[in-house]
């Protein structure tokens, strides 16, 4: 186990430790870990600060007995013996609120982790495209062709011997979620073959898309890109973004 993994185990127990809810053995383990770990001490201090904030909130006040009797005497139900009511003690209230806040913190951490995982997938695919581009550029038979259209410029890398092409374009506009970019391989008769869909990334100024063709690229004379409904189309239906002949 790495230090980080050990740390995670202790960190999970810190909220319970702060609430004195751990059994003796676990509490002792956390306590001895805290002596050696500054980040867990910080975590504990944060939870304690949170609990203290809750404890400082105005506790429900009990009216003075005389006032209470007088008020109760004026109520229509005064003659009836009041049934015992469940009253939250101050500690129960504080514990309840603490649990709600801890729950909220957990939910927010979970959402953050999910966002990070999504970002990680995007970054991994960007990295993969970047590495593929470098590999293609290093290969002497790779053709490099200019992509030029309204407000869009870029490069099309074509490796006909290995049937790989890569689109690298700058300033490709963001599409809304109902649309996608779709690439097409164009044969000498003008027939289009689906070459995959791709989106532009909001986090970077250029967009890259790799095309691995099942057919020999020498059977084709160009690549086009259109805007299509988000799942892609069997044949181009939308506006053309650019076309490159090779
Ligand atoms: Zn720690």
Tell me what you see in this structure.
The protein has 246 residues and is α+β, with helices and mostly antiparallel strands. It has a domain at 143-245: Immunoglobulin-like, CATH 2.60.40. Helices cover 43% and strands 24% of the residues. Strand 2 (152-159) and strand 3 form a beta hairpin. Helix 1 (3-18) crosses helix 2, helix 1 (3-18) runs parallel beside helix 3 (38-56) and helix 3 (38-56) crosses helix 5 (90-138). It is elongated, with a radius of gyration of 32 Å.
In short:
This protein is an alpha+beta fold.
Provide the fold topology.
Layout: H1 3-18, H2 24-36, H3 38-56, H4 65-74, H5 90-138, E1 143-149, E2 152-159, E3 164-170, E4 179-186, E5 192-198, E6 206-212, E7 222-229, E8 240-245
Antiparallel strand pairs: 1-2, 2-3, 3-6, 4-5, 4-7, 7-8
This protein binds zinc ion.
The site of zinc ion (ZN) has 6 residues, from helix 1 and helix 3.
């Amino acid at each position: 186990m790495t230090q980080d993994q050990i740390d995670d185990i202790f960190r999970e127990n810190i909220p319970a430790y702060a609430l004195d809810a751990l059994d003796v053995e676990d509490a002792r383990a956390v306590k001895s870990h805290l002596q050696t770990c500054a980040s867990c001490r910080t975590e504990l201090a944060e939870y304690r600060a949170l609990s203290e904030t809750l404890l400082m909130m105005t506790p429900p006040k009990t009216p003075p007995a005389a006032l209470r009797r007088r008020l109760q005497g004026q109520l229509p139900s005064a003659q009836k013996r009041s049934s015992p009511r469940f009253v939250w003690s101050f500690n129960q209230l504080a514990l309840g609120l603490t649990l709600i806040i801890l729950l909220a913190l957990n939910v927010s951490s979970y959402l953050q982790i999910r966002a990070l995982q999504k970002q990680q997938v995007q970054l991994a695919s960007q990295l993969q495209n970047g590495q593929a581009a470098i590999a293609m550029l290093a290969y002497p038979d790779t053709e490099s062709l200019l992509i030029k259209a309204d407000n869009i410029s870029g490069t099309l890398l074509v490796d006909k011997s290995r049937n790989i092409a890569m689109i690298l374009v700058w300033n490709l506009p963001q599409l809304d979620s109902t649309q996608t970019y779709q690439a097409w391989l164009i044969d000498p008769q003008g027939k289009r073959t689906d070459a995959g869909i791709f989106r532009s990334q909001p986090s970077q100024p250029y967009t890259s898309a790799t095309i691995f063709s099942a057919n020999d690229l020498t059977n084709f004379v160009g690549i086009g890109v259109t805007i299509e409904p988000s799942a892609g189309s069997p044949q181009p239906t939308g506006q053309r973004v650019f076309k490159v002949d090779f």
